[in-house]
Amino acid sequence: MDKIILGILMLHRMTAYEMKNVIKNSFKSMCSDSLGSIQAALKRLFEREMVTFEEVVENGVNKKRYAITEAGQKELLEWLKIPIDTSKTRNADLAKLLFMGYVSKKEREILIDKIILSLEEEYRSLLQLRESIDIHGEQSQLEEDLNRDKQYRERMNSLYNKSKLSNKIKEISKFTLATLDYGIDTTEFNIEWFKRLRKKL
Questions:
Q1: How many CB atoms lie within 10 A of CB 98?
Q2: Which residues pair with 66 in a beta bridge?
């Protein structure tokens, strides 16, 4: 969760509640969106001087708005240089598949049908999310936000110096969409895999 928070804070200053909404909408398959988990991660990151915060009052409510520090950016960029280890994707529920031979054929059929239905629902949800994204609108909004925040604009410009800010934002968006497409493709594969298993019962 710590690295996901650092990645989110690379683009915007945010409160813990705003991060909760971003994680709920975009990262729920990767980490918990509970406010307690987010606040615990922010506390760890603050103690390691990877984030800082300013106290603000909005509508009479005191809030902490967090920002990534240079140390946090360095930590994130070093972590990004380590290749993705897809073998680390753990799902303890897969043990149910391993031990499914212990239940009756009828129960297996019911269980697999429920898995397929759940995956199909997730697949539809991911497709709706993909279709709802106004990538150009989001890129324009991000560019406006960065142009209003000098510190964040300078941070973004430092990433790869020879590229315009708008081009950097397009590169970031490209991989945001690629991650969503990975989720869509993986879910589609899982649906077809379980349908094949169902036919073998």
A1: 8
A2: 14, 53
Residue type at position 88: K
Report yes or no: 6 and 50 within 8 Å, Cβ to Cβ.
yes
Nearest to 172 by CA among 150, 200, 139: 139
Place of tokens 């946090």: 72
Q: Is 119 exposed, middle or buried (0-12, 13-18, 19+ CB in 10 A)?
A: buried
Per-residue model confidence as pLDDT tens digits over 57-85: 888 888 899 999 999 999 999 999 988 87
Task: Give the model's pLDDT for residue 10.
Answer: 92
pTM score, whole prediction = 0.79
- Residues 69 and 49: their CA atoms lie apart, in Å, by 7
In angstroms, rounded to a whole number, what is the distance separating the alpha carbons of residues 79 and 169?
20
